[in-house]
């Protein structure tokens, strides 16, 4: 669509894309705001009240609007700023809190048009439910600043916004518009693509179109126009830009101050020509596919204060990167982020970088020790070298001069902190990640002085001690606490938890008593609760109504008793979030709650094994269409297996290899809206005779139903044959009768089938011969009869696998079927599917499996699961290995890996 535009409209378009990301509109452009003596215009006050009627204000953001003491003077209302005289509303700042859910929602009333002098409108971080931006916003003749960042708008951007003739800045990032990509909603003329339009705007100062689905820039747009000399900010993160954009950026090399191209598709080397941008202060190329090192020219950018290259494919020695930046850039550089790359070598001495405040070198291949010279960086605020291969000791010498330090991350290394018991730190840390470092055996006393902590992770640090009394009353600022995998002792009920915790994990310790104190976490932001593997007891308190953002709940491996509290499934927010429930290995009694199926519709994993549950399996469980693992084993459940198990549609669909459980096909707007969590990675622990194997991200491949060791009766429903991706089915040690479903051979992915110790009768279905099971098939102690179907694998099982079925005949059993002649030795069945190779591969796999497991997660997992994907014989051998360990799936445990907080210099203030 094209329109004829006059000179006035052209000037409008020049100003239209003056994006100022996260700008506080109160700075610099309002001549004054109302004081106590200014009274607003009555017509405008009534317009605001009418506007409020259309909004839903769950958090009382607008409680001051129309309150008794301020009823007449709207200039005192929150978010309303007026001119001094005669009190016209100039600014309406209703920006929500991005950490809360839906601060404001509802509809925008056109009554705002009565605010004729309105120059700034900010509705960012609210939730307008995918509604379209109202066309009437294009009628504000004096509007200069419009901010709709992450406000859940959708549809098309109205062309009426082109009528905002005085507009200077606008930010519409991170919404769900469907006509942003080519900017045709802005343009009144034909253009190649979005860059073509931008090139025609010589007065543009700030371009901010993050998360707007912008396609790669067209090469033809590089040479046709006179480029703006005033463009200072280009923020195009989370789009589809490739390396072609570099050449376009070089046209603005004398003016650009900030470039943000994070989360795009940049590849290859960083161009050396970017070092000619002599005004550049901030460069962010995070989360791309850039390779090699950084250009030597970067050391000559004397204005460079922030360089962020995290999560790329950069390689080389760290000391080489530091040497490159040792030109005049060393005097200005304040933030350096090289994390999540392939950088090697030891940590160099940064002592010449006098301005350095933030260092991120985590998740590389760094070795060596932490140099003592790090203590000379007196400005240092953030220090992160996590997830490397560093070793050695960190003492007071490293830390005593770092008085500005507020974030310390040494986790996932082989470092030991040896700090004097009487040492008093010069800093107040807010973020502490020391997981897998050596802190114990005593509880670190220096933590007693850190009363501003918001994140504390001292998991797996070798502490074997009682929780000290001073730690029982946790700082009110604490939001994230992980002390798991230690040997901590104490009464859990004595710990006083802050109300606004988001994560609490005390798993794998020796805590005792009840957990009633956890109900004091009432801030509504708890999303992860793991109390598993302790000595906790009593009933589960019925306080789940406090935890509207809960995603992970693991209470397994304790001594809890009583019934499962009903509040677990009574919350609307909880219903769309909670995906993993493990209450296994406790002493819960009563029936399996039917409300689980009604109240937790997106549940992926349900583990209630090893309890004292009774009654029948409620049919409501069949409503859990996203369920991938159902474990009700080792209980006293009776009755029939529901015929509606075919409703477990996730077990009929191929697993999402990359997304795993949390990244399933089901999406909702709240799935990643839990406070402090930017990335969610799921783990699973499969316990086999004392050996633990850890998986990450790939639990989605496992589709499991385990109903073993109960008192189930009736037939095995034929509907279960529709779960085509089922990998494990265990219904052993029940009282099931009747025939094995004829269509069970449809389960081609089935690797482990245990139906032993039931009372199945008649023949084994011929379709089972088409399924490549693991080598041990559980058909012991039934009333099966007839000939064992001939196939590629059934004849390779041991006769012991069919023990107790006296009327069965044919190989591998010694008794011949009626009418069969004794075959010659040369006529014995052969394995046409390479079972001999499978057996050899099984031995090879088992030896190699344990060797690989010792090299850590990355090597271990890919060493195991990579071949399993591509080599069928090894895949069979793997499940043979699992099957040969009786009841191989004892428990599954999902955990969370928190992406480390990345502090951006531009947000420091």
TrEMBL record:
Keyword presence, Transmembrane helix: yes
Domain Leucine-rich repeat-containing N-terminal plant-type: start-end pairs: 43-83
Keyword Transmembrane helix annotated: yes
Compartments it resides in: Cell membrane
Membrane topology per record: Single-pass type I membrane protein
Keywords for this protein: Cell membrane, Glycoprotein, Leucine-rich repeat, Membrane, Receptor, Repeat, Signal, Transmembrane, Transmembrane helix
Family: Belongs to the RLP family.
Protein's UniProt name: Leucine-rich repeat-containing N-terminal plant-type domain-containing protein
């Amino acid at each position: 669509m094209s329109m004829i535009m006059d000179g006035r409209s052209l000037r409008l378009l020049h100003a239209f894309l003056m994006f100022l990301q996260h700008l506080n509109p109160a700075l610099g452009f309002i001549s004054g705001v109302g004081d106590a003596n200014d009274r607003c215009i009555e017509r405008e006050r009534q317009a605001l009240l009418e506007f409020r009627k259309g909004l839903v204000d769950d958090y009382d953001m607008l409680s001051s609007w129309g309150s008794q003491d301020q009823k007449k003077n709207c200039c005192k209302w929150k978010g309303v700023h007026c001119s001094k005289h005669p009190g016209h509303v100039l600014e309406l700042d209703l920006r929500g809190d991005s950490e809360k859910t839906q601060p404001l929602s509802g509809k925008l009333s056109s009554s705002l048009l009565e605010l004729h002098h309105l120059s700034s409108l900010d509705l960012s971080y609210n939730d307008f439910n995918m509604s379209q931006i109202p066309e009437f916003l294009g009628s504000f003749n004096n509007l200069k600043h419009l901010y709709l960042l992450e406000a859940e708008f959708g549809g098309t951007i109205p062309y009426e916004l082109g009528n905002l003739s005085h507009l200077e800045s606008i930010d519409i990032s991170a919404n769900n518009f469907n006509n942003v990509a080519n900017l045709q909603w802005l343009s009144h003329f034909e253009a190649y693509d979005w860059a073509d339009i931008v090139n025609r705007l010589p007065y543009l100062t700030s371009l901010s179109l993050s998360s707007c689905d912008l396609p790669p820039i067209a090469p033809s747009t590089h040479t046709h126009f006179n480029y703006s000399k005033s463009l200072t900010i280009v923020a195009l993160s989370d789009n589809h830009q490739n390396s072609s954009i570099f050449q376009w950026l070089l046209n603005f090399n004398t003016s650009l101050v900030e470039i943000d191209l994070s989360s795009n598709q940049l590849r290859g080397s960083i161009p050396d020509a970017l070092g000619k941008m002599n005004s550049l202060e901030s460069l962010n190329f995070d989360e791309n596919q850039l390779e090699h090192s950084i250009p030597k020219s970067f050391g000559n950018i004397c204005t460079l204060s922030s360089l962020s290259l995290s999560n790329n494919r950069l390689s080389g020695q760290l000391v080489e990167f530091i040497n490159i930046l040792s030109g005049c850039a060393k005097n200005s550089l304040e933030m350096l982020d090289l994390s999540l790359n392939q950088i090697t070598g030891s940590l160099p001495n940064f002592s010449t970088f006098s301005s350095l405040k933030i260092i991120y070198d985590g998740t590389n291949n760094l070795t060596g020790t932490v140099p003592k010279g790090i203590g000379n960086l007196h400005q240092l605020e953030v220090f992160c070298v996590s997830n490397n291969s560093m070793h050695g000791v960190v003492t007071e010498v490293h830390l005593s001069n770092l008085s500005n330090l507020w974030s310390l991350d040494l986790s996932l290394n082989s470092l030991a902190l040896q700090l004097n018991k009487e040492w008093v730190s010069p800093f107040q840390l807010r973020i502490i990640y020391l997981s897998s470092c050596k802190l114990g055996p005593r509880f670190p006393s220096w933590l007693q002085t850190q009363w501003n902590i918001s994140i504390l992770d001292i998991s797996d640090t070798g502490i074997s001690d009682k929780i000290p009394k001073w730690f029982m009353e946790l700082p009110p600022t604490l939001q994230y606490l992980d002390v798991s995998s230690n040997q901590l002792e104490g009464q859990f009920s004595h710990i006083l938890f802050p109300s606004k915790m988001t994560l609490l994990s005390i798993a794998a310790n020796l805590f005792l008593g009840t957990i009633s104190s956890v109900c004091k976490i009432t801030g509504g932001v708890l999303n992860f609760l793991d109390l598993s593997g302790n000595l906790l007891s009593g009933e589960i308190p019925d306080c789940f109504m406090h935890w509207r953002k809960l995603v992970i709940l693991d209470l397994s491996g304790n001594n809890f008793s009583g019934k499962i509290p009903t509040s677990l499934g009574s919350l609307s927010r909880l219903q769309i979030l909670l995906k993993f429930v493990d209450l296994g290995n406790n002493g819960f009694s009563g029936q399996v709650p039917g409300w689980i199926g009604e109240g937790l519709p997106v549940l992926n994993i349900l583990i209630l094994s090893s309890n004292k549950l009774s009654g029948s399996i409620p049919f409501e469980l069949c409503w859990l269409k996203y369920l991938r693992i159902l474990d009700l084993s080792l209980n006293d459940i009776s009755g029939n297996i529901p015929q509606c198990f075919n409703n477990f549609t996730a077990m009929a669909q191929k697993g999402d290899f990359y997304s795993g459980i949390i990244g399933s096909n089901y999406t909702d707007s709240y799935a990643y809206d839990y406070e402090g969590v930017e990335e969610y990675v799921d783990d699973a622990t499969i316990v086999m005779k004392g050996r633990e194997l850890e998986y990450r991200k790939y639990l989605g491949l496992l589709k499991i139903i385990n109903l073993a060791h109960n008192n189930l009766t009736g037939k095995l429903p034929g509907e279960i044959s529709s779960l085509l991706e089922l990998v494990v089915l265990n219904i052993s040690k029940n009282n099931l009768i009747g025939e094995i479903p004829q269509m069970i051979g449809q389960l081609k992915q089935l690797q482990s089938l245990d139906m032993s110790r039931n009372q199945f009768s008649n023949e084994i279905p011929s379709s089972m011969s088409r399924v490549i099971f693991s080598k041990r098939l559980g058909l012991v102690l039934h009333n099966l009869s007839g000939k064992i179907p001939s196939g590629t694998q059934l004849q390779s099982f041991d006769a012991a696998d069919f023990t107790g079925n006296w009327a069965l005949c044919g190989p591998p059993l010694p008794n011949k079927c009626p009418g069969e002649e004794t075959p010659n030795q040369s006529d014995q069945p052969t394995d046409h599917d390479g079972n001999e190779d499978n057996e050899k591969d099984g031995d090879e796999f088992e030896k190699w499996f344990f060797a690989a497991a010792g090299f850590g997660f990355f090597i271990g997992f890919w060493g195991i699961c990579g071949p399993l994907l591509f080599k069928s014989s090894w895949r069979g051998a793997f499940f043979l290995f699992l099957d040969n360990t009786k009841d191989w799936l004892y428990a599954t445990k999902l955990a969370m890996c928190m992406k480390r907080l990345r502090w951006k210099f531009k947000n420091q203030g």
